[in-house]
Amino acid sequence: PQGSEKAKTFVHGFLKRSMPKMKDEAIQDMLTRKAVVLEHYPKKKTKQKRKKTKGFTAKQRRELRLFEIEPEQQRYAIFLPLHELWKQYIRDLCHGLKPDAQPHMTQGKLLKADLHGAIVTVTKSKCPSYVGITGIILQEFKHVFKIITKEDKLKVVPKLNNVFSLELDGFISYIYGSKFLLRASERSAKKFKLKGTIDL
Asked: What domains, with CATH codes, occur in the chain?
């Protein structure tokens, strides 16, 4: 019938437009089988580049005084709760610091732990004035510790050429500052040699 011829012509034209890469013989073959699978060519999406959020430069941080502790906040008693939190954090990290725990395993975990809130003592130093300083670590930088003492004095103690002791639940650990010249965030990925050299 005439209507069927029009339909066939329409379908043939439609398939030709939809699948321009296909030859007429192949289209005719599809029509005889009455099974048509249309091809789809999706448009390539252009990926939008994410803008990196720029943080403050070191100069800007100094100008804004982001890391400075106000004089009225430099009181030992204020940071005692921080020390209690740190002790709980270390107990969880070292599974309770049990007496039967292997010392080198505990030492390895302490070397990678966050020390903000720990009470440390300078036991050896090339500069005698640093020996005996005890307090809570408020800030740790690559080269120095900022420590608040019981006398409410904020001390800036360099890591280089100093040995620090750290005591918790009867476990005493010694930190050789010269081998510890890293930021707190960098220590977690570093492998430490537990048998270090005494360089004082």
From this structure: 1-32 (no CATH), 73-189 (2.30.30.210)
